[in-house]
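[agent] plan:
  1. take the single chain provided in the ticket
  2. run structure prediction with default settings
  3. attach C-alpha cells to the ticket
  4. add a short note for the reviewer (M.T.)
[agent] executing step 1
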Amino acid sequence: MIEKAKAIDLLVVGAGPAGLAAAIAAKKAGVMDLMVLEREEEPGGILNQCIHNGFGLHRFREELTGPEYAQRDIREARDLGIPVRCGTMVLDITPDKEVTLVSREKGLEIFRARAVILAMGCRERPRGALAIPGTRPAGVFSAGTAQKIVNMMGYMPGHDVVILGSGDIGLIMARRMTLQGAKVRACVELMPYSSGLNRNIVQCLDDYEIPLMLSHTVIDVKGRGRVESVTIARVGEDRLPIPGTEQEIPCDTLLLSVGLIPENELSLGIGVTISATTQGPVVDNRFQTNVPGVFACGNVLHVHDLVDFVSAESTQAGEAAARYLGGYEDTGATEVRVVDGPGIRGTVPQRLLLPQGEIGEGLEMMFRPDRVYNNCFLTIKAGEAVLVSQRRRILTPGEMATAKLSPQLLETLRNEKELRLEITAEKQVS
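[agent] step 2 finished; step 3 output follows
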C-alpha cells in the first residue's frame, strides 16, 4: 500500500555535478526542505569513472581528476546537511510535480514537490542508431561503457581497437586503452572536423601517434563470435561512402563515440517542451522550463564539454529555484525569444525574461557553431538592427561558445520580440 504523497519544497533529480551544484546553491539561498535523488549507488555521476585529470581548471583554478572534482561537491553537500538518496529511481513526474520513486530500502514512494530541478545528465548514442551494416559480434562497445569497464571494473574490453567518432570520451579512451597496453588502430570521424576538444586531440591522439581519419566512417563490421575487422571508407560532402575508398582494418574491438543524448524521458512526462536542436528542455534565463517550478541544468539541458560550465550553470538554476520557492514572480517581465541564425546551433537559454525594474547583471548564452569557422564574427541582432558584432578567431563544434549580454544591451531589448545570433564572415553594423 502506497502512503499519501509526502510534501517537500524541492526535489533534485540526479546527484552528478549538475544536481549537486544546484542543490548546494539552493540550500545556500535558503531552501531548507530539499532532497537529491540518485539512481546509482554513489553520488558523483559520470565523474566517478573519469579518472583522468583536466577537471576544475576554470572553477577551482587547479587540475583535478573526475572523482576529486565530484568529491568536493559531495563533501560540501554533506557539510550543508543536504540529504542525497542513492539507489533511488524516479519513475514518473507529473505536471503538478508529483514525483513517484522507488528504492530498495523504502519501496515505492510519492512526493509532492513545490519545485523540481532536472539534472539527469545524458546517455551515449547507441550503435543501433547508426545502422552500421555487418554482423553483431561481441566487441562493440560505447566509449563510456568501455571507460567504466576499464576504470571501475578493472577489465580490458579488447586489445586491438578502432574508435568510431571523435567525441571527448572516445579521444580519452584512445589514450586510456593505449596506456593499458592495447593497440588503437585509428579514430575514425564522419565529419571533416573533430567533435572533441582540441586539447584532447593533442593529448590523446597526437601524443600517442594515433591517426585521426576525418571524413571517414565504418561501413561494415565483420566477425562471428568476436569482432575480427571493420571496413572503413572516405565520405563525400553528402556524408555518403565514396566507392573505391574502402579499407579493412583488423581489430577485436570497436568503440563508439558518436554523440550524447540528454536523458529526457522524465521531462517529456512532465510536459516540458524539448528543443529539436539541443534535444534538451527549452528554458528561460532562469533555467525554468515551460512548466512553472520545473528547472533543468547540466547535460540534461544541453551537452557540455567542460564540467566547470555544468557547475556554473547549475548553481544559477539552484538559485533560481530558491527564488521561485521564495515567492518571487515578475508578472510584468518582457519575454524575448532567442533564435539560431546562420552558423548557430542550439543556443541556451531559448527565452529571455527581462524584469520590469532594473536589469541588474548581464547574462551569458551558450551555443555551438554548425561547423569550424576561422576569423569570423559573432553577430547579435534584434530584428535587422545589429546590437553586437564581435570578432572570433576560431569557433568549432567541439567547444562550447558563449555570447555575453551586458545589462545595457538587455535594456535595449525591452521593446523587441526576438534576438538572433549569427556567424558572419564580415563585421556587421546597423
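[agent] step 4 note for reviewer: The longest strand covers residues 107-118.
[agent] ticket updated
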